[in-house]
User: Fold this.
Amino acid sequence: SVNRNQSFSNRGMTLEEDINATNQYYLTHDICVIHKKPTPVQIVKVDYPKRSAAVIKEAYFKQASTTDYNGLYRGHYLDFEAKETRNKTSFPLHNFHEHQIKHMKDIVKHDGIAFVIIRFKAHEKTYFLDATKLFPIWDRQYLTAGRKSIPHQFIIDEGIEIPTHYPAIVDYIKVIDQLFF
Amino acid sequence: SVNRNQSFSNRGMTLEEDINATNQYYLTHDICVIHKKPTPVQIVKVDYPKRSAAVIKEAYFKQASTTDYNGLYRGHYLDFEAKETRNKTSFPLHNFHEHQIKHMKDIVKHDGIAFVIIRFKAHEKTYFLDATKLFPIWDRQYLTAGRKSIPHQFIIDEGIEIPTHYPAIVDYIKVIDQLFF
Ligand SMILES: [Mg+2]
Ligand SMILES: [Mg+2]
Assistant:
């Protein structure tokens, strides 16, 4: 029941699924080593039934202290967060958490490469935005006149559209090559 | 009820707790940015009670696809696994998983720094062993005459004892400095 008329970026796959598939492709083809971190969970109660695997019976989602993805490309440390929005004209800043921004600032300070991948689902466009372009917008939101979102036009102007093609569905390494090598 | 006669490395803290405290110290003092990855969990059932946080009611532990720790130090990617043993004369290889070794080989191939931290609890000693010294031993275990463990003496000879002092309880960055900078 695959709809063959669906465009590739409109298959109902989430950005996270697309990035995971891309990372798997990168790993298999020895391009880079990037993994998604597991969802952090506070485990409260575990049952250990005889002759079968331990079952977690009570646990809670914890807020992540870092971004979702990190790893290694040509000797360089990469670190990023990926977010998608249904909004058409801007990306709301509340999609990020303060400690994720703090973490990306730490990464930049220690000479790593930090960035965000932002998908506008309505436009079927996925962008790379260097974290150093995000920080001033993030910090400014707390000022009286500060915007609480990143205009789509800013991301078009200051970011780079990520090429989308099979099998590197979100081919962000192409952008890294362009910017850093 | 703190026993003041207990030696520092014998406080009943696990190696993981000691490394987490060290990483927190490193982060606070802007030395490096190393985080433990969350325990990977396969979530099966979640309840969403009204007016309170989502509760995971059924989940299972998954095997990690990478090592437990990674991060960034002076622009270099670091990646390591930490293990402790009660054994006195050798460290059993079954403490590592095949995919962790594969992951560390990937890291070395892409010019990252991969290593293991091994604590012999009986000796109150914690060692740094470069992953490249582990790989041949790991691969050899599958040969007929291959050992299934790393002799303590090999780790003494080929590894480096990690200095243990408050507040950098497992001060592995000192070893990194010595070997790579
Ligand atoms: Mg996230
Ligand atoms: Mg582990």
User: Anything to note?
Assistant: Helices of chain A lie at 15-28, 98-109, 131-140, 152-158, 172-180.
